Every structure is written in C-alpha cells, then in structure tokens.
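Protein: histidine kinase
Species: Stackebrandtia nassauensis
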Amino acid sequence: MTWPVRPTLRLRLALWMGGAALVVGLVAVLVAPVLRFELATVVVAAMVCFVVGYVVAGRSLRPLHEVTATAKRLSTDTLDDERIRLDGPPDEVRELADTFDDMLDRISASFEAQRRFVSNASHELRTPLTVMRTEIDVALSNPDDDIAELRQMGEVVRDGCDRVNDLIESLLWLARAEAEGQGGLSKAQLTDLGDCAEAMMATARRAADIMELSLAVSRLPAPVVGDPALLERVAGNLIENAIRHNNPGGRVWVLTGGDREISWLVVGNTGADVDAASVPRLFEPFSRGGDARVGRRGAGLGMSIVRAVCRAHGGSVSARALPEGGGLEVRVELPAAEVTVEGA
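Structure follows.
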C-alpha cells in the first residue's frame, strides 16, 4: 500500500487527538439538543486539537529525531564522540536516549578492543617473521657459512615458527570460545574441573621439575556441564602461566571444589610482585601484566581464553595479587552440575 502522506508518528498522534475531540463533540451533538452552528464549532474544535496535537507531538518527539540524526552521523571515525546527551525530565524519551548513549559506549569499547586486538596480533606475528627473515637473509648473503652457523639459523627459524604456531593456535582457541559464548555450547557433557586439571598435570609436573617448583594439588568434586576440551584448556592455561611466571624454587597450587551452586578451580603461584591495579587487564588479549610477568614464550592470550571459556559456560573468572611473597591467584567459578549417586 502506498501512502499519499508519510504516516509519521507525529501525524498519527495529531490525528488521534483531533479525531478524539471530534468524536466527543459528535456524541455531545447527538445526546443534547443543539443548534446547527454548534456542529461547526465541534469541527473547528477538532481541527484546533489536531493542530495543537501536531505541534505538541513534534516537540515531544524531537529527541527521537536527535537519536535518528545521531545514528546517521555515526561512523568508525565519529563513534567515540557522537552522543545524544539529552537533557530534560527522566521520562521514557530520556530513558531511550540514555540507553542509546550507553549502547554507543559499549560499541565504542568493542571497536577499540577489536582495533587493539588486530594491532597487537599484527605485532606479535610480525616480530618472529621479521627475525626469521633477517636470519635467512644473513645466511643467504654469506655463502661461506659453516654447518654450525646454518644450524644456528635453523634453530632461530624453528623457534620463530613455534611462536607463530602458538599464536595462531591461541587465536583459534579464543575465537572458538567466544563463538561458543554467543551461540551456546556445541558440546556439553558432565565433567569435573578436577579431571580437567589432572589431564594437564603430566606436562605441568615436568615443567615444574625443570624450575624446581613445588606443585601441590587438592582435588574435591567440582562437577560442571560443559565442553571438556575448552575446560581443559582453561586449566592448562592457568597452570602453564603459574609455572612460567614463577621464581625458581617457588610454589604452584591447584585446588578444585564446589557446593550446590558453584564449582570452582583455583590456581595460584609465587613469583614477582603484581600490581593490584593491573590485575583486571590480565584478561585483555596480549596483556602480560607488566615486565615482571613476561615470559620468553606465550602470546598473552591465555587469560583471554580463560575468560571467554568461563563466559561461554555461564561462569566467571577473577584474580588477585598476593600481598605476601608475590604471585597471583586465579579463581574460576562455573555453575555446578547436579550429580546423581548410583544406588542412592
């Protein structure tokens, strides 16, 4: 259907007001004995109500036009600055404008995080590739290199390939975890956080022995419903970080447990002092929590993966800097699963 005049909300409100006045007037004419010229008065009054309604509706709906105009001006370049910032009474229109501004704040933060992620990923990939390219160019420029020099070049290139491979694998894990959080878990089954941690312990014990770390494990039932592979990655990332960012001869502890509502996994370690103010940033992609926690290996995506997996499972993760002796303790909390004991 093609409308001769655009049926705007303002026009419809004005028509409703004018129509209501006309109906009331006609009812009065039919009910009470009036003269013919009084019917014309009713029509004029209805027209006046229409005009007044049109003006009042236009004034009331002006903030909506501001929302529309702001939305049309939005782009990736203006997303940080364009806001409605509507003044006035806290009515429904003000609430809509404030909600729109809040939405823009979230979108802006998301875009900024995406830009930072792409920039950091590009940097992380470029660094090992540049090193490998330099080593290869040096080797090709000197035809007299002996076997030892060529082997050294090969080791550098191999380490660079490992670093790139680790980064790509971490990016894929992060993408999968975030996709699971948006669309629901594609694989969900009863599992236990203690089992997930134990699956990672063989490699952890070898790495701990190399650094002469004491590794303490306390397993109490921590049943959850989720993706075992993703949850094992959570435990593995936390344990790997606790070992990597530690002092020789330090300690690592892994604890699991739960109650009727939550199941939890705690991984803590000794190590350098961690600034409490920097702890929330540890869960941002490519954040390593300052120079004190930078290892030779790792892309800085482990904690981001942990957070994304926790969110996908309806849980949360938190960390706290330990005040005595340095180090960090990370706590994962997920909804507990109901476990039926056979024979009960």
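Remarks: Residues 92-141 form the longest helix (50 residues).
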